[in-house]
Protein backbone atom coordinates (compact mmCIF):
# COMPACT_ATOMS: atom_id res chain seq x y z
CA UNK A 1 0.00 0.00 0.00
CA UNK A 2 1.32 3.46 -0.88
CA UNK A 3 1.35 5.79 2.14
CA UNK A 4 3.39 8.68 0.77
CA UNK A 5 2.02 12.07 1.83
CA UNK A 6 -0.50 10.57 4.23
CA UNK A 7 -0.93 11.29 7.93
CA UNK A 8 -2.10 7.72 8.49
CA UNK A 9 0.48 5.48 10.10
CA UNK A 10 0.89 2.29 8.06
CA UNK A 11 2.03 0.37 11.16
CA UNK A 12 -0.94 -0.96 13.18
CA UNK A 13 -1.41 0.45 16.68
CA UNK A 14 -0.80 -2.88 18.41
CA UNK A 15 2.64 -3.17 16.75
CA UNK A 16 3.60 0.41 17.66
CA UNK A 17 2.45 -0.27 21.22
CA UNK A 18 4.57 -3.45 21.38
CA UNK A 19 7.62 -1.58 20.07
CA UNK A 20 7.21 1.20 22.67
CA UNK A 21 6.79 -1.34 25.48
CA UNK A 22 9.87 -3.30 24.33
CA UNK A 23 11.98 -0.14 24.07
CA UNK A 24 10.82 1.02 27.50
CA UNK A 25 11.66 -2.32 29.07
CA UNK A 26 15.14 -2.41 27.51
CA UNK A 27 15.78 1.20 28.57
CA UNK A 28 14.54 0.56 32.11
CA UNK A 29 11.70 3.07 31.74
CA UNK A 30 8.04 2.87 32.69
CA UNK A 31 5.61 3.51 29.90
CA UNK A 32 1.89 3.73 29.30
CA UNK A 33 0.59 3.70 25.75
CA UNK A 34 -2.78 5.29 25.04
CA UNK A 35 -4.18 5.41 21.51
CA UNK A 36 -4.96 8.90 20.25
CA UNK A 37 -7.51 8.62 17.49
CA UNK A 38 -7.55 10.79 14.43
CA UNK A 39 -10.09 13.59 14.74
CA UNK A 40 -11.23 16.37 12.50
CA UNK A 41 -9.09 19.52 12.73
CA UNK A 42 -10.10 21.58 15.73
CA UNK A 43 -8.71 24.33 17.94
CA UNK A 44 -9.65 22.03 20.85
CA UNK A 45 -7.20 19.24 19.83
CA UNK A 46 -5.22 19.41 23.08
CA UNK A 47 -8.38 19.43 25.22
CA UNK A 48 -9.89 16.49 23.30
CA UNK A 49 -6.63 14.52 23.51
CA UNK A 50 -6.25 15.10 27.26
CA UNK A 51 -9.85 14.02 27.84
CA UNK A 52 -9.25 10.90 25.74
CA UNK A 53 -6.20 9.98 27.82
CA UNK A 54 -8.10 10.59 31.08
CA UNK A 55 -10.97 8.38 29.90
CA UNK A 56 -8.63 5.59 28.74
CA UNK A 57 -6.45 5.55 31.85
CA UNK A 58 -8.72 6.72 34.63
CA UNK A 59 -6.09 9.35 35.39
CA UNK A 60 -6.86 13.04 35.42
CA UNK A 61 -4.86 16.24 35.59
CA UNK A 62 -2.03 15.20 33.27
CA UNK A 63 0.63 17.85 33.63
CA UNK A 64 4.29 18.13 32.63
CA UNK A 65 5.34 17.10 36.13
CA UNK A 66 3.39 13.81 36.07
CA UNK A 67 3.77 12.75 32.45
Summarize this structure briefly.
This protein is 42% helix and 0% strand. It has 67 residues and is mainly alpha-helical.
Polypeptide structure, described:
With 67 residues, this protein is an all-alpha fold. It folds into two domains: 1-33; 34-67, no CATH class. Helices cover 42% and strands 0% of the residues. It contains two helices and no strands. It has helices spanning 13-27, 45-57. The radius of gyration is 14 Å and the shape is flat. The mean pLDDT is 81.
List the helices and strands and how they pair.
Layout: H1 13-27, H2 45-57
> End-to-end span in angstroms?
35 Å
Give the biggest beta sheet. none
Query: Rg, please?
Result: 14 Å
Shape: flat
What's the helical proportion of residues?
40-55%
User: Count of helices?
Assistant: 2
Low-pLDDT ranges = none
Order of helices and strands: HH
Average pLDDT metric: 81
Number of strands: 0
Number of self-contained structural domains:
2
| Oligomerization | single chain
* Beta-strand residue fraction: under 5%
Structural class: mainly alpha
Amino acid sequence: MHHENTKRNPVPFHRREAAIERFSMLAGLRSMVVPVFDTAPTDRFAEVTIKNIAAATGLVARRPLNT
